Amino acid sequence: MDKKTVSKLSMLRKTPKHFPNIPGKAKRLFQRNRKFIDRDFTSKSMLLSLSQSVEDYLEIIYRLEKKKGFARTSDISSFFGHKPSSVTGMIQKLDEQGYVNYEKYGGVTLTGKGKRIAKKVSERHETLTSFLKILGVDEGVAEEDACRIEHSVHKETMERLRNFVSFVQNAPKDPKWLRHFEYFIKTGKHPKMNEK
Description:
Elements: H1 3-13, H2 24-49, H3 52-68, H4 73-80, H5 84-96, E1 100-102, E2 108-110, H6 112-134, H7 139-149, H8 155-169, H9 176-187
Helix pairs in contact: 1-2, 3-6, 4-5, 6-7, 6-8
């Protein structure tokens, strides 16, 4: 985000007393929406510090760490298809920011801070993949799309998706509506009422 955008967002955070010429109705509207302006300002600030790339690195380190106890830059490099020198540079930045523990020619592990973020990203990824698979999306495509979507889904939307996936996965038997949806995907038509 450039300085101009940050400046505009800072102006929006000011209270109506900073704008004495705003009519009463507009002041009340501003006051009611203040919490949303603050939330958006905070979210945009957070996005600055945690880019999609940072989240992707933390997530893959988290997966590798769960599997082997640590990650190597060569493993990360092969996963992303990046040059080892690029991966090393990013790992060093993550180490400086306190997300990972890194020693040259050694393994990479997540710090508590890095692990918390990686776990959240991984959970979002798993939920989105499951949701897309419920919709009938091929697993490979679902994984790929989940990787893209996981960075931009609002917290409230993510919670609803998580609840929906849990609801479907823990249903006592295949829900009828889900079979109807699968039929619709295949045929483009709604099933007749007497069809199962």
